[in-house]
Amino acid sequence: MSDITILTPTYNREKLLHKLYKSLCNQKDKDFEWIVVDDGSNDNTDEYIETIQKKADFPIRYYKKNNGGKHTALNYGCQYVKTKLVFIVDSDDTLTDDAILTIQRIYEKYKNEDDICGFSFLRGKSRGGYLSTSGVPEDGMKESYVECRINRKIGGDMAEVWYTHCLKEYPFPEFKDEKFLGEDIVWIQMSKTYKMRFFNKVIYISDYLEEGLTNNRRRHNINSPNGCVARAKVFLESDSNIKAKVKSALQYQIYGRFAKKKIHYLFKNTKNKVLFIVSFLPAKIIYVKWKKTFEISGVTQT
């Protein structure tokens, strides 16, 4: 049995999945399986997967669910994972030829450490350069997600490979009629219990699409305010630095207002009363500005 499952949530990306599939076919180590979770696509994704299942030299499993957003697709897919590791790879991205080989070697080296939730590598751009800022030493390091990514200010996106049992221990929270959630809400929660191994090596290639989640983040946030409130609350209760907490205090109130939560409710349900009070006025000003901007641009709340 292999140690690695590549988990890909997808929605109407039939024409892009072939690039990821080709990069999987080019892997130097084929000891992995690919699980594709179709989040309610209305294109021909199912037919495409059926075609490549017949000719791939690695196992491909396909599951389809009602549209609910990437985080719900990840929750759905995790229940079918049987391997020790889960590598979340988006449907419009690709892997370097040695990605699986690299992960397998790292796992063999550190698999007896019971205080880590996974391994983190770098993402690169197809035309060269990095998606994550520099900061991970050449020989790697062991820290929590909060210590490395937040407090060291190593920003951008990385390529994280998670222990399956950790993803099942910390599922993504789901909110009715909300289809977007920042995935780091779970990574921050894991930091309370686990560390990670970070490595200065690119194994994942990304180029963000104009219609992708990243380029439309604020619009998605406003349409999924309860998830944003929950994420901000997790940040406020973490060991992150003061700058991150101030930003989260603002987001907690801004998106709380978009979620139509009463101010006294928000105040009661945060442990950071001082930050709440300090950020009250600027949060209100930003909320009014964003509300006006997005009403003009036609953004609707769900």
Kindly report how far apart the N and C termini lie.
Answer: 43 Å
Strand content: 15-25%
What general outline do the C-alpha atoms trace?
Answer: globular
* Radius of gyration (Å): 20 Å
- Flag low-confidence runs: none
Order of helices and strands: EHEHEHEEHEEHEHHEHHHHH
**CATH domain class name of the largest domain:** Alpha Beta
The residue-averaged pLDDT reads 92
Q: How many domains make up the 3D coordinates?
A: 2
Largest sheet: 9 strands, mixed
| CATH architecture descriptor name of the largest domain | Alpha-Beta Complex
Q: Count of helices?
A: 12
GO molecular function: hexosyltransferase activity
Protein name: Glycosyltransferase family 2 protein
InterPro entries: Glyco_trans_2-like, Nucleotide-diphossugar_trans
Domain Glycosyltransferase 2-like: 5-130
Polypeptide structure, described:
The mean pLDDT is 92. The protein has helices at residues 14-25, 45-53, 70-78, 99-110, 145-151, 164-169, 184-190, 217-223, 225-236, 242-258, 263-268, 273-296, and strands spanning 4-10, 33-38, 60-64, 85-88, 94-95, 116-124, 141-143, 158-163, 195-205. Helix 7 runs parallel beside helix 9 (225-236). It has 302 residues and is α/β, with parallel strands linked by helices. The relative contact order is 0.12. Helix 2 links the parallel strand 2 and strand 3. It is globular. Strands 1, 2, 3, 4, 5, 6, 7, 8 and 9 form a 9-stranded mixed β-sheet that branches. The chain folds into 2 domains: 4-207, Spore Coat Polysaccharide Biosynthesis Protein SpsA, Chain A (Alpha-Beta Complex); 215-296, no CATH class. GO terms for molecular function: hexosyltransferase activity. Residues 5-130 form the Glycosyltransferase 2-like domain. Keywords: Transferase.
